[in-house]
Amino acid sequence: MYKKIGIITSTYLPMPLMISLHQQGLLEQVMLHPDAESMLREPLSHMIAPMEINRIADPTNPPVNDSCDLVIVMGYPVKITGTYTAKLVNIHFGPLPENKGPDPVFWTLQSGKLLAYVAIHEINAADDLDSGLILKEQSFDIAPGENYGLLSSRLSHMSIQLVQELIAGDTKPRAQEADRAQYHPMPSGQDFMIDWNEMTSLQIENLVNACNPVHGGAKTVLQGGTLSIYEVMPASLVVADADAKQPGEVVHSSLEQGLVVKCKDSNYLKITILSLNEGIFSGNKIAALGTPVGTILGQ
């Protein structure tokens, strides 16, 4: 049974867990990555006051209090190399070792998986990132249309029960199978781009969900500018000369019905939420403002 617990993070994701531990009198210390301190310190000071909140000067060596007997790392993409008397564990939102890396939620959604995971594994200074004995792991169904923000929030809340079991000693440690290991890097640039000529309608929808909101939407080109798409939905309609339409071609555009685009698999997607440099819009409004039928996205 662990009685004094520290949290290391660079994101808002552990907040539900921190509040839960604080209410139980188990939260001893919170350590914030320097890039996140300005964003997190004030809300945390209200939610878990009075509580010691420390800025991490050296991200590889957080200042863990000697009083802590368990330290939970969550949403912290830096390898910790320091040695501590406390047990260090990491909460990872992906199956291990198949989905190692700093952004498992993106790759889970982008690849169209039906299950998401919360894994808790030991951290040792000698281990690679996201390695170490797995102490707890549980899968959860991904809801149809669930985006990055919703899934991350849900997994954050689901992790509370797994942490409670860990605190109580309910674990079955197992080694990660090296031959199943896959490392996925932090997505960037081209990873967010829609390829209308290569992606099916489902693959595009998966990418859009994976990019909303944290990566600023899936990207394409509209009339020479960048268009960020935050939400799409399948559209059923009859299109004249459908076979002659190109992937990425706007086949319907109106204030009443919005913006509908043909995909490679001859299915259609309605773009419901998007953004341009000028702001965030509904697909209906962009259609009404002047995106005519025949416009080709991605060119």
Written account of the structure:
The protein is of the alpha/beta class and 299 residues long. Helices cover 22% and strands 27% of the residues. The strands form 2 sheets. A 7-stranded mixed beta sheet has the order 3-2-1-4-5-6-7. Strands 8, 9, 10, 11, 12 and 13 form a 6-stranded antiparallel beta sheet that branches. Helix 1 runs parallel beside helix 4 (148-167) and helix 3 (104-110) packs antiparallel against helix 5 (201-210). The longest helix is centred in the middle third of the chain and has 20 residues, at 148-167. It is elongated, with a radius of gyration of 22 Å. The model has no long low-confidence stretch (mean pLDDT 95).
How is this fold's topology laid out?
Elements: E1 5-9, H1 15-23, E2 27-32, H2 37-47, E3 52-55, E4 70-74, E5 87-92, H3 104-110, E6 115-122, E7 134-141, H4 148-167, H5 201-210, E8 218-222, E9 225-235, E10 250-254, E11 258-262, E12 268-276, E13 279-282, H6 283-290
Parallel strand pairs: 1-2, 1-4, 2-3, 4-5
Antiparallel strand pairs: 5-6, 6-7, 8-9, 9-12, 10-11, 11-12, 12-13
Helix pairs in contact: 1-4, 3-5
The ordered string of helix (H) and strand (E) elements is EHEHEEEHEEHHEEEEEEH
Helix tally? 6
The helix content, as a percent range, equals 10-25%
Instruction: Indicate the mean pLDDT.
Output: 95
Distance between the termini: 59 Å
General shape: elongated
Count of β-strands: 13
Structural class: alpha/beta
Sheet with most strands: 7 strands, mixed
The radius of gyration over CA amounts to 22 Å
User: Strand order of the main beta sheet, please?
Assistant: 3-2-1-4-5-6-7
